[in-house]
């Protein structure tokens, strides 16, 4: 019986997917595992590379070659690989990530087997930039051994679980698929991990066992915090999470949503407007309940009309000059 289904999603990963598959094939386990690769209609040489690997490892690798792109940053492609899984557990991967150690699958299975109450488990990972735009760093610096819903929800976005680090139970996911509203979200991982945590703790192995690669063609670069579409999508996602959790964490999630309205003030689409920024500034103030100092700054910079500020500055400057002149003559 297959113990683990390693589900890999690819799209234009010709430069990376061989390293991904090699790192999975090198895994040393006491159990059988399979590799399911779903390709989202790549336009480069990815499919040819996948077919070559499948021919060399026909008993290990299965391919799902979609005739058209399934959309939503690869989410539907990932779901198709999960649906095809035969293993007790699913380990998910992006086609540009890779493993650093040969016992990643073994250690995670041992943790899941030993803790049947865990909904999932993950480990640390190293982030590398394909173009060396920034130095490598670790995804997290965690001290706890298990995490609950409270740990995954904050006033800011908490994203410390790398895709290539997660393992979860196939049967559990089949019984509790992603809620329909997640199909509107450009992030599949954030709401999915929160949903896992509602059904049981998520275990953590404090070892760096994989690499999360950021490349210019990857989905992570589509997350643009200066683009209104991305910001609206996050607002919608966290609003839906709040509703799904029956508003149990409403105070925290409301402040989380407020941060995206604040970022909207600097977005490409609205950063130089007046009335839209007034609307989003008021939204931010009403939801974030910021400090008096921050509140004054937002009102001054985004709500008071510019011509009023110019008039105020004109009279304030002239009053200052007048006082200086009078004091200088006395």
Describe it for me?
The protein is globular. It has helices at 17-25, 46-56, 75-83, 104-114, 149-152, 170-175, 189-199, 228-244, 250-264, 275-288, 292-303, 306-329, and strands spanning 4-10, 33-39, 61-65, 89-94, 98-99, 120-129, 137-138, 146-147, 167-169, 202-214. A hairpin with a 7-residue loop joins strand 6 (120-129) and strand 7. The chain has 2 domains: 4-222, Spore Coat Polysaccharide Biosynthesis Protein SpsA, Chain A (Alpha-Beta Complex), CATH 3.90.550; 228-308, no CATH class. Strands 1, 2, 3, 4, 5, 6, 7, 8, 9 and 10 form a 10-stranded mixed sheet that branches. With 330 residues, it is an alpha/beta fold.
| Averaged pLDDT | 91
CATH superfamily of the largest domain: Spore Coat Polysaccharide Biosynthesis Protein SpsA, Chain A
- What's the structural domain tally? 2
Query: How much is the radius of gyration in Å?
Result: 25 Å
Measure the end-to-end span: 97 Å
Broad CATH class of the largest domain: Alpha Beta
Largest beta sheet, briefly? Answer: 10 strands, mixed
Helix content: 40-55%
Question: Can you tell me the overall shape?
Answer: globular
Keywords:
330 residues; 10-stranded mixed β-sheet; alpha/beta
Task: Please provide a brief summary of the model.
The chain is of the alpha/beta class and 330 residues long. The chain contains 12 helices and 10 strands.
